[in-house]
């Protein structure tokens, strides 16, 4: 069984990529939405939540745990690895693939305050972005939009624009989604970027806009680690998922049902 957790529904953007390559697994997904968002919370607080959720996932039979949250990965994964006897797969800010494909030499990173100030992110940026410029912005209000299902329409475009446009103005043609909630805003982000480019007198080079979600790479890494650890990649009873929430189980169930409708392989 694979355990997955996030501060809320964001980790389901990682779950859907995992499901694409491990469709016959059993899963337990924990949404800590009573304590969401994590973005501005103190590191110690997030470590404590991660510990308590991990204990619960292990007690339910999780053999490996995906920390499907960039903020919790940055704050807590080292502690979790020291304290628990299972393997943990965390989120990596996708600066490396972004640096490889940018044509303007400017990469934008959207993430939470907690992720952007963490050593893990700063080290990744130092390592992979030596020859490019990286501009960052907190996705202000993004998590709240996703948690409340308001991911499309003028209000979402307005909120997204506030954080995205400064990155586009700085010349970013490639934007890293550094929070697992943000892929649920991908369509709105692309729409806002397209409108910005249509309104600006920019060279054609700017018209190629790349949005990078690290979830597919995280799913592939999970599969590799499961093979290394000898963990079965399918459950004899086939696919199952148990949804758990610290705050609002109905909302999590509703979000999950919506995801199933929009995704043929879940
Ligand atoms: N989904 C999370 C992340 O990847 C956390 C967002 C939040 O709770 O602020 O960072």
Q: Your description of this structure?
A:
The protein has 266 residues and is α/β, with parallel strands linked by helices. It folds into two domains: 2-92 and 215-262, Rossmann fold (3-Layer(aba) Sandwich), CATH 3.40.50.1860; 95-212, Rossmann fold (3-Layer(aba) Sandwich), CATH 3.40.50. Helix content is 48%, strand content 16%. It has eleven helices and nine strands. It has helices at residues 12-21, 43-59, 70-83, 95-101, 113-117, 119-128, 142-147, 154-169, 186-199, 215-229, 249-262, and strands spanning 2-6, 26-31, 64-67, 87-89, 106-111, 133-138, 174-177, 210-212, 240-245. It has a five-stranded parallel beta sheet with strand order 4-3-1-2-9, sandwiched between helices. Helix 3 links the parallel strand 3 (64-67) and strand 4. Helix 1 (12-21) packs across helix 10. The longest helix is centred in the N-terminal third of the chain and has 17 residues, at 43-59. The radius of gyration is 18 Å and the shape is globular. The two termini are 16 Å apart. 43% of the residues are buried. D-glutamic acid (DGL) binds at residues 6-8, 10, 36-39, 69-71, 112, 115, 143, 179-181.
């Amino acid at each position: 069984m694979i355990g997955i957790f996030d501060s809320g529904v964001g980790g389901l953007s990682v779950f859907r990529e995992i499901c694409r390559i491990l469709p016959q697994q059993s899963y337990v997904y924990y949404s800590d939405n009573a304590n969401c968002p994590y973005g501005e919370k103190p590191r110690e607080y997030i470590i404590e939540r991660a510990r308590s959720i991990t204990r619960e996932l292990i007690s339910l039979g999780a053999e490996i745990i995906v920390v499907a949250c960039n903020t919790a990965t940055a704050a807590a994964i080292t502690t979790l690895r020291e304290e628990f006897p299972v393997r943990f797969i965390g989120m990596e800010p996708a600066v490396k693939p972004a640096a490889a494909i940018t044509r303007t030499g400017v990469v934008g990173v959207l993430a939470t305050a907690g992720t952007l100030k963490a050593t893990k992110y700063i080290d990744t940026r130092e390592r992979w972005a030596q020859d490019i410029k990286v501009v960052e912005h907190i996705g202000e209000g993004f998590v709240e939009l996703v948690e409340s299902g308001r991911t499309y329409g003028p209000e979402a475009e307005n909120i997204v624009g506030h954080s995205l446009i400064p990155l586009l103005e700085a010349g970013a043609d490639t934007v890293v989604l550094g929070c697992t909630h943000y892929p649920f805003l991908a369509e709105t982000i692309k729409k806002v970027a397209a409108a910005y480019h249509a309104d600006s007198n920019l060279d054609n080079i700017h018209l190629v806009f790349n949005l990078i979600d690290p979830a597919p790479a995280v799913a592939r890494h999970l599969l590799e680690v499961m093979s290394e650890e000898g963990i079965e990649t399918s459950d004899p009873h086939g696919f199952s998922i148990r949804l758990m929430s610290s705050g609002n189980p109905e909302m999590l169930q509703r979000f999950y049902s919506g995801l199933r409708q929009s995704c043929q392989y879940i």
